[in-house]
Amino acid sequence: MLLDIGLATVFMIGMLLAIFVASNVLGQEIRNKTTLTIVSKPIGRPPFVIGKFIGAAAAISVSTLYVALVFLLVEQQEVFQTVRVPIHLPVLLFGVLTFAIGTSVAVWCNYFYGFVFSSTWICVTTPLLAISYVLILNFAPNFTPQPMWIAFKPDIWKAVIAVLVSVLILGSFAIAFSTRLSQIGTLIATCLVFFIGMMSDAWFGKPLYEIEQHWLDRAVNAGQVETVDRVRIMQKSNGDIEEVITETVQALPGTSLSEFATSSELAKWTSYKVAYSVVPNFQVLWLTDALTQENVIPNSYLLKISGYGVLYMVSAISLGIILFQRREVS
To answer: Cα separation of 42 and 40, whole Å?
Structure first.
């Protein structure tokens, strides 16, 4: 339950940050006509859009990392389900010290140097939280020293990285939309991308599967299928290996299921396939189910979804550059 709520909180806060920060960072420049003073210099429009995305991505990443570190400190403490759950004294001590030092530095810089309090506080507190987290891993709840890998849970960090990839995808789309739309329009369009991406499996993936099942049924009647065993090996966080064997019916080699499709079904399948491929699927980046089932998240999967996210970011920023090329900024 704590993992679900914690990661959902990190995701929702990161999503809101991505939508509002990214939609405003370029749109405000266009609305205030300050873009003209930049693009009229030897700075092309593509570097301008890319630079805005990099800056917004850095701000979003730091803020999301801050929320994630707070969640990881809470996860070290665990939920007080009974009175027997001990108070994690290192979490309490280092957490209070971190916020006290961060607040003091932010107040000092704001009063004497005119720095913005909120951004200064985040920039100071986030690295302090990271240091505190590393120190906390070396202590048991009663301050007894322990090897840090006993408390370190790499799979939670993998889930946090996947959430960050999702947030940056939304930020890239917000940057792209802000090149042509108003701030309200950008907010609505980015929220639609998020909502459709979360419903991608239900709206596009499920109809695809149902159409392919109809084709498979016809292939069965024609005797053009075979039964194969598919083996899935899942490693548990306690070191156990779980092997799942399922029987799957598939078309014979050299036979395509599309041969058993009608023209209307093929058109539907193509439209669903295109939509399923174009819209980012945020479900593949949501790894909480693997954590709650105590499955180990493979590093190869993390690399795949990171590459998946980078492709969408590059595509969205490329779209934004194309839209911004002929945007009137004067």
So the answer is: 7
Nearest to 193 by CA among 177, 180, 207: 177
CB-based contact 324:29 (threshold 8 Å): no
Which residues pair with residue 241 across a beta bridge? 235
The type of residue at 106 is A
Q: How confident is the model at residue 161 (pLDDT cuts 50, 70, 90)?
A: very high
Query: Which DSSP letter does residue 236 get?
Result: B
Burial 74-101 (b: 16+ CB within 10 A, else e): bbbbeeeeeeeeeebebbeebbeebbee
pLDDT tens for each residue of 180-196: 888 888 889 999 999 99
Exposed e or buried b per residue across 287-318, where buried means at least 16 C-beta atoms within 10 angstroms of its C-beta: bbebbeeebbbeeeebeebeebbeebbebbbe
Quickly tell me which residue has 């405003």 as its tokens: 24
**CA-to-CA dists, residue 208 to 57, 79, 132, 224, angstroms:** 34, 41, 48, 20
Is 324 within 8 Å of 181 (Cβ atoms)?
no
Q: Is 255 left (phi over 0), alpha (psi -120 to 50) or beta?
A: beta
Q: Helical H runs in the chain?
A: 2-31, 35-39, 45-77, 89-113, 117-136, 154-178, 183-198, 200, 206-221, 263-278, 288-292, 299-325
Answer for the pair 106, 91: CB distance below 8 angstroms, yes or no: no
pTM value is: 0.90
Give the SS3 label for residue 46: helix
Q: How many CB atoms lie within 10 A of CB 182?
A: 14
